[in-house]
DNA sequence: TTGAAAGCGCTAACAC
DNA sequence: GTGTTAGCGCTTTCAA
């Protein structure tokens, strides 16, 4: 086992000073050609690699980006991370991922740890817990310290920073319109609790679309589910209780669970009933029938979020100027709405 | 925007020396109580947080763990990451995730960047490309430099280090036995290319189980698919070509694609034909019918991998002693093999 | 053309 | 008890 060589060691071996080595390795024209060559050859031989910690300390930049998300076992978030990684790596940044596990406390702890000079900036999507409490002091704090922060998807109006979101309301609106267009008359909505920004916005889109089409909003057709792991029962119950011929679900799990109930109930999809879900993940692509979805373009979101952050870090974008980028959702048509 | 305070600033403000502040903040009994209190109060007021970069430089530890995986949009890998995060965070480590994107070159680049003092140790699962080329010089290099490395799932015999794997062969063996037990007579295998350690091992398990049960291995019932995104055609073809009443698939996508073909062909699942897949992800849990799977316990794998690495880092485990932990797969029975 | 010295923020051995 | 000094690995004046 050979330890990494340092500038100092090279300098000693070669009988020159540390600063000479440092300069030579970076091709400074201050240093004579002969010396430069000698030093570079030696460095190569011993496989010299600059210590990035020392460099970070020196110029107070880490070239690390901190990403805090609620969970990673979730197709949408992983596509966003993939998008962040791509842009970040291309710009020479590493990505440190922390999971808040939907908990406010963990979110705060993660932010604090990372903020202590582990990273240059944050990309974050709020935990459910944080959205419920509406306590954003930890975000304010890092912003105050001059650390750039970009929020995506689960954002808050109360914080001024760059944001990337999808047009959740519009997306839901388009989905409902689409269902109406293909002939649905009664459309159910399976959503999450309202304190989640996305749940609320999508519900709004649903309502607006109905209204604009002169259809009365019927509370009985709307389900608000809090716990993802416990959705089958309320959904089955909905099918017992009501008759409808279209379903909009705010995620693919709800959508697929509903399709299962529909099939069990004896409906033919999409002939008797059509389905659209948010989150264009594996389930949507592979379920039978495949699910028509509102694609949130997670990869692009990640790209943009990373781009925004890096622009701030490298001062391409001025500090006090905040943008909110809204990504257009698109509908991916599949078997759950289109005869196949 | 207020910059973070440093020890130096506190020292200056309070008219004491830096080392006094440093000691006082860490409750050294060398420092008088009065001074200590004064300093701590001041630090608290100005929200002093030690600069972790400086500390890293000082003790040549970063408290970061580097994780390199082929992709993140993959249920198995995300569960492993979740497992790693948990153990790592509890031990005060951050996790830096890098994606190799199944490419050898990216894997090498990622390793090199991280190895330049960004992290204390690696957890890695090899890219397909690396397994195909059998070029492991980058792994050897970091090990040589004294950086601990733990491999999981996609490992190589040629490298000496700690490893966490599942009993892939055994898992496949058990799955086939299970299918035979519930009455299957002809079992097809849908696998990946053989250069992937897991594909090979699972195929081996399949063969052994048949052999031990006195059933002849029939090449025509075995599919080797290289490209995940292009599996429907060969699978459909298999259903055209052959008759069988059981299927073992090495991942849930293949399994689910096969179920779709079976249903289209008019089979009833599980009455006419039964299915088992590896990877116990969302698809398995939510498909209709739900898929019986060989669970690889990704979360536990992550836990163990992180534990192993940290034990090495904190010298709880001696340097030159390498373990290979084999995790037992378990079969999760669901609707695809059991009448419901 | 080269090198000495200071400094990034912190810790620790050793003086006072 | 408190301070001085050196040093982690590197960059960057500034002097020689």
Describe the structure.
Chains A, B: This is LacI family transcriptional regulator. Two copies of one chain form a homodimer. Chain A is α/β, with parallel strands linked by helices and 340 residues long. Chain A has three domains: 43 residues, no CATH class; 141 residues, Response regulator (Rossmann fold, 3-Layer(aba) Sandwich), CATH 3.40.50.2300; 128 residues, Rossmann fold, CATH 3.40.50.2300. The first copy, chain A, is 45% helix and 16% strand. Chain A has 14 helices and twelve strands. In chain A, the strands form two sheets. A six-stranded parallel beta sheet of chain A has the order 2-1-3-4-5-11, sandwiched between helices. A six-stranded mixed beta sheet of chain A has the order 7-6-8-9-10-12, sandwiched between helices. In chain A, helix 2 crosses helix 3, helix 5 packs parallel to helix 14 and helix 11 crosses helix 12. Chains A and B meet through helix 4, helix 5, strand 2, helix 6 and helix 12 of A and helix 4, helix 5, strand 2, helix 6 and helix 12 of B. Chain A binds a DNA duplex (16 and 16 nucleotides) through helix 2 and helix 4.
- Find the biggest chain interface: A-B, 53 and 53 residues
In CATH, the homologous superfamily of the largest domain in chain A goes by the name Response regulator
- By CATH, the architecture of the largest domain in chain A is named 3-Layer(aba) Sandwich
Oligomer: homodimer
Measured as a percent range, the helix fraction of chain A is: 40-55%
In short:
Chain A is an alpha/beta fold and about 350 residues long. Chain A is built from 14 helices and 12 strands. Chain A folds into 3 domains: about 5-50, no CATH class; about 55-165 and about 300-325, Response regulator (Rossmann fold, 3-Layer(aba) Sandwich), CATH 3.40.50.2300; about 170-295, Response regulator (Rossmann fold, 3-Layer(aba) Sandwich).
């Amino acid at each position: 086992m050979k330890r990494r060589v340092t500038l100092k060691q090279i300098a000693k071996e070669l009988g020159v000073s540390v600063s000479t080595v440092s300069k030579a390795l970076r091709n400074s024209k201050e240093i004579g050609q002969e010396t430069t060559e000698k030093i570079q050859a030696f460095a190569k031989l011993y496989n010299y690699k600059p210590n990035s910690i020392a460099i970070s300390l020196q110029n107070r930049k880490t070239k690390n980006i901190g990403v805090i998300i609620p969970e990673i076992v979730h197709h949408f978030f992983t596509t966003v991370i993939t998008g962040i990684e791509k842009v970040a790596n291309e710009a020479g940044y590493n990505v440190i991922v922390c999971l808040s596990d939907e908990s406010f406390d963990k979110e705060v702890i993660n932010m604090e740890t990372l903020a202590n000079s582990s990273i240059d900036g944050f990309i974050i999507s709020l935990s459910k817990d944080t959205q419920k409490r509406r306590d954003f002091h930890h975000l304010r704090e890092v912003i105050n310290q001059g650390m750039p922060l970009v929020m995506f998807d689960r954002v808050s109006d109360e914080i001024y920073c760059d944001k990337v979101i999808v047009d959740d309301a519009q997306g839901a609106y388009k989905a409902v319109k689409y269902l109406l267009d293909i002939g649905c008359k009664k459309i159910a909505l399976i959503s999450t609790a309202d304190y989640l920004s996305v749940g609320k916005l999508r519900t709004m889109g649903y309502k607006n679309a109905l209204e604009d089409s002169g259809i009365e909003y019927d509370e009985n057709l709307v389900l608000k589910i809090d716990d993802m792991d416990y959705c089958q029962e309320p959904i089955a119950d909905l099918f017992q209780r009501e008759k409808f011929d279209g379903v909009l679900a705010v995620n693919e799990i709800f959508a697929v669970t509903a399709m299962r109930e529909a099939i069990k109930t004896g409906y033919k999809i999409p002939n008797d009933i059509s389905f659209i879900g948010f989150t264009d993940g594996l389930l949507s692509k592979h379920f039978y029938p495949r699910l028509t979805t509102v694609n949130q373009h997670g990869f692009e979101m990640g790209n943009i979020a990373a781009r925004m952050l890096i622009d701030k870090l490298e001062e391409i974008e001025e500090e006090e100027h905040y943008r909110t980028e809204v990504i257009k959702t698109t509908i991916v048509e599949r078997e759950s709405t289109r005869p196949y």
